[in-house]
Amino acid sequence: MTRSLTFLGLLAASAVGLVPLPGLAASPEFKRVAVPFMDKYCYECHGGKKTKGDLDLKQFKDDAKILENRKLWLGALKQSGSGEMPPKKHPTRPTAVELAKFDAAINTALDRAEAGAKPDPGRVTIRRLNRNEYNHTVRDLLGVDFNAAENFPADDIGYGFDNIGDVLTLSPVHLERYLAAAETVAARAVPAELPKPPSRTTYSIFLEPSNYHSENGTRPVTNSTPELFTQQKITVAGDYRFEVRASATAPTNTEPVKMTLLLDDRELTTVTVTNRRKKWETFEVKLDALPVGEHRFAARFANRTEGATNRMLFINEFKVIGPADTRTDFQRRIAASTTGKPPAEQARAFVEWFVTRAFRRPATKEEIARYVKMIESAQAAADGKLEAGAQQLIKVVLCSPKFLFRIEGDEQPKARDAHPISDHQLASRLSYFLWNSMPDEELFALAAKKELGKNLDAQVRRMLKDPK
Questions:
Q1: What single string gives the DSSP state of each residue in 115-126?
Q2: How many CB atoms lie within 10 A of CB 323?
Q3: For residue 395, which of 141, 204, 251, 433 sits 20 to 30 Å off, Cα-Cα?
């Protein structure tokens, strides 16, 4: 694992010019070995008056230009090594020792030249997100987990991979599908109307213990079974309500029936049940900040009397309602990004936060100003509804080339030498390499502070442990 992590770190770092590629230190033997070899076996056809194949080897008196003619020298080594040059009709043939020395001299000169040359990081192709990357990025950006790209055209394959920038084309069909997907994603991430809190009902026949069959939706709580309960798995933390429909029978001039509601064996409240049997009354208790996990909801006959058969508590159903906050994950993120901001600044704060993540680099002042105007215009057309502005922003951003393509702009365009890419670009390279998705909040935070480079190894370890 350690060797793999070191390789990943060196791979990412060398890609941005942080780690120079090692070269072989060697003494120049070009003039001492290669030039005499060529004088003896090559100049007759490739030097002086004869330059077969337009190749004049006499021009190379030393190895000063060997790197810029690398292809020529590799070809020469191939020809000499295979025995094709010098030709068989040549009066003298080089010995195996001479060929080995010539080969070593050329390779040593090439290695020395490469080690001393300035690093060439090459070019970065503007690359479209493939279907998998699009799906994962939408999920992590908007909290919408569905196959947004199921109707997209198949990605082109290059060298056996579907993420090669040079072959990922963009067709008119792609544009149509991107627009349709953006509409769907925006509606799911920011619904126009919040749904009612979900409700899970457990009818009396399904309550525990299961040693009694209810009749007509009625389940008695008796001396032998003084408590009924159900187990519910809460998957979203939040505020909930626990409701119980109950009725009772009790003779006149006797103590009324009392019922205690419990959560995880903790008493929540005790209520008086006065309605007669089948005249159901609903009792509820609020559960603030109910955590995720398995919970036991129960109702207990609080003041039962041993041996009494004329005082009984009846249960019709349990109901667990919640969470009360039915906003989507993305709507909660919007609220978090604008908390503490005055109303006039909330749209700007939201745009800056969202666009920075969607484009995987800091939003520019011009972008923020343009998108804020667009949000305000959409809200004005929808009677001031914030949801309308947020939906419009999502649709426009998801169809922007800055989202659909991974673009690495040069922050030092006038620099003549190789230089590191920005921390945001490094974060994007890492996340798409390891996760097939956009950077998370920790990567964004380190990139914003320009501290990702020096924390590269720790972040690679963390990302490899992540389920993504």
A1: HHSPP-------
A2: 19
A3: 433
Burial classification of residue 207, based on how many CB atoms lie within 10 Å of its CB (0-12 exposed, 13-18 middle, 19 or more buried): buried
The beta-strand segments (E) located in 235-275 are 238-249, 257-263, 266-273
Query: Whole-angstrom Cα distance, residue 149 to residue 133?
Result: 10
| Global pTM value | 0.70
Give the pLDDT band (50/70/90) at residue 243.
Answer: very high
DSSP 364: P
Length of the chain: 468
Q: Among candidates 324, 379, 83, 94, which has minimal Cα distance to 195?
A: 324
Distance CA 417, CA 60 (A): 27
Q: Would you say 134 and 53 are in contact if contact means Cβ atoms under 8 Å apart?
A: no
Q: What is the mean pLDDT of residues 155-178?
A: 84
Rounded to 10 degrees, the C-alpha dihedral 91/93/94/95 comes to -130
Question: For residue 14, what pLDDT is reported?
Answer: 39
Tens-digit pLDDT profile for residues 350-381 = 999 999 999 999 999 999 999 999 998 998 88
